Amino acid sequence: ALLDDGPKPLKGRRVIVTSGPTHEPIDPVRYIANRSSGKQGHAIAAHLARLGADVTLVSGPVTIPDPAGVEVIRVESAREMLAAVTAALPADIGVFVAAVADWRVATSADNKIKKKEGEGPAPLALTENPDILKTVGHHENRPRLVVGFAAETADVIANAEAKLARKGADFIVANDVSPATGIMGGDRNRVRIVSKQGVEDWPDLSKDEVAERLAARIAEAFQA
Ligand code: CTP
Ligand code: CA
């Protein structure tokens, strides 16, 4: 195929990519989730595969099609995503694009929670989810290159630098998702690559162009 004609700098390299949201059940019919289409993570998985990588894409619930040339593992919750990612280790490279829900309901109900006449809703007790990127960034089988994302609405660089250190990542792909940018749910993205070496400002690109450029940047960093 046309797509397969280019150079293969990641040939034989194992890559894990997370994408999409996670769904955290409240009861059998309701859940808590972040907004995420999966477009950016799926495009990154496809472009890494194009560069010859052996890609495992661990995806939360999305409506977009599976990318070509990639093994897809579908999960619902953050805990399922963590289990699928650690089961896919060891890997050479990990790219954590998923918009993981930070909290889940402490005890989800086995049956649908019913409204009760004259009573307000019962409060939901939440508990923190595992941090998948942070777990892998500090894992005994840590991939040689670990890339995370940071969707921020303020103080983008400072927050991304803090995440780089806290999560044990080599790169944080930072983007400003404040409503005025129109990035959430759209097809475009403007990112900055934050690493110990400094900050790279990328222009406004389509999500597919960001993915292509990031896959190339990852291949370059991996070979260095
Ligand atoms: N991430 C993850 N597991 C989580 C939360 C986040 O793997 N439970 C990953 C995301 O996939 C992303 C990076 O960590 O690559 C940053 O996610 P983000 O939500 O921006 O960071 P948090 O540490 O959750 O901080 P906050 O939401 O408070 O900004
Ligand atoms: Ca978060």
Automatic annotation (TrEMBL):
It comes from the Bacteria. Its EC number is 4.1.1.36, 6.3.2.5. Residues 15-224 are annotated as: Phosphopantothenate--cysteine ligase. The keyword ATP-binding does not apply. Keywords: Decarboxylase, Flavoprotein, FMN, Ligase, Lyase, Magnesium, Metal-binding, Multifunctional enzyme. The keyword DNA repair does not apply. GO terms for molecular function: FMN binding; metal ion binding; phosphopantothenate--cysteine ligase activity; phosphopantothenoylcysteine decarboxylase activity. Residues 10-220 form the DNA/pantothenate metabolism flavoprotein C-terminal domain. GO terms for biological process: coenzyme A biosynthetic process; pantothenate catabolic process. One of its GO terms (cellular component) is phosphopantothenoylcysteine decarboxylase complex. Its cofactor is Mg(2+); FMN. CTP binds at D102, K112, P130, D131, I132, L133, F149, K163, K167. It catalyses: (R)-4'-phosphopantothenate + L-cysteine + CTP = N-[(R)-4-phosphopantothenoyl]-L-cysteine + CMP + diphosphate + H(+); N-[(R)-4-phosphopantothenoyl]-L-cysteine + H(+) = (R)-4'-phosphopantetheine + CO2. Binds 1 FMN per subunit. Pathway: Cofactor biosynthesis; coenzyme A biosynthesis; CoA from (R)-pantothenate: step 3/5; Cofactor biosynthesis; coenzyme A biosynthesis; CoA from (R)-pantothenate: step 2/5. In the C-terminal section; belongs to the PPC synthetase family. Catalyzes two sequential steps in the biosynthesis of coenzyme A. In the first step cysteine is conjugated to 4'-phosphopantothenate to form 4-phosphopantothenoylcysteine. In the second step the latter compound is decarboxylated to form 4'-phosphopantotheine. Catalyzes two steps in the biosynthesis of coenzyme A. In the first step cysteine is conjugated to 4'-phosphopantothenate to form 4-phosphopantothenoylcysteine, in the latter compound is decarboxylated to form 4'-phosphopantotheine. This is Coenzyme A biosynthesis bifunctional protein CoaBC. The chain holds residues 179 to 402 of 402 of the full protein.
